[in-house]
User: Fold this.
Amino acid sequence: MAVETTRWGILYCPKNGVTNNRKRWERIQQVLDDKGVVYDMVQSETSDSVERLMTMLINNGYKTIIIVGGDSALNDAVNCLMKEEKTVRDEIALGVVPNGVMNDFARFWDFDENDVEQTVEWLAKRRLRKIDLGCIRYTNKKGEKCHRYFLNCVNIGMTADIMNLRRQTRRLFGSRTLSFLSSLFVMLFHRMEYKMKLRINTETIERKVMTVCIGSGPGYGQTPNAVPYNGMLDVSVVYHPEVVQLIEGLWLLISGRFLNHRSVHPFRTSEVFVDEAKKALVGIDGRLMKTPVGPFRVDIEKEVIQFLIPA
Assistant:
């Protein structure tokens, strides 16, 4: 039996390795109750359960689905939603209460992880905007044609490698911050270059490249001018700089001026063909994926998801 249209379906995705998840949810719950929001909550345990629970909320007729999570949880949610017919998608409003490590997509819309009251107040006003999704289309090791949607970006090369190193070092250090800093330190002394062949607009790039970011959104600072509603992808291709230039590039990334670095070559396009990216790892919305087999393509699908934005 379908639920009433005003009832929210909330999918709570706790942060891995955080001990105060219960207090975090209790805080959110208190705000929801104070604002008079009618809702049902389900909690995920793994990334696989996000898609299963998202499907359950859709099938039970929830028209407002809120993800309490980060970029990876949102990625799972939109990929699940994109399996539905357009008529079903158009009836569902997707929203976010940031609760991840980076929360880059939520931050783009000015949602603040520490201001739950403001976030819930904005969501309750139900201001909708149709947003774009990027899509990577590739072949897996079984020879099957696959695709995966993204809200924020696809990373090829060094940035995806940092994600992989971070996962490995986290097992050693336990701390997210320490694992990230140690991964970054290792990368400073590890020459990361990948032989790539890219086709972007009318230009062909065939050379060694450090990293490529293809963003429908801000791309963790690497595609800072990208917006998820103009039907275009922003691309940053980074050639390998010297160590001093690399440190300068990290500073420009942190300060929001990444495109000013001399080794960064920006593009704006509707699709990118990656004909070759030997041994380069690929990350999607902050999560490492298995390296595609052979060439792959990244394009954009316009205005396919209804997203709740600040009022």
In short: The CA atoms of residues 162 and 187 lie 7 Å apart.
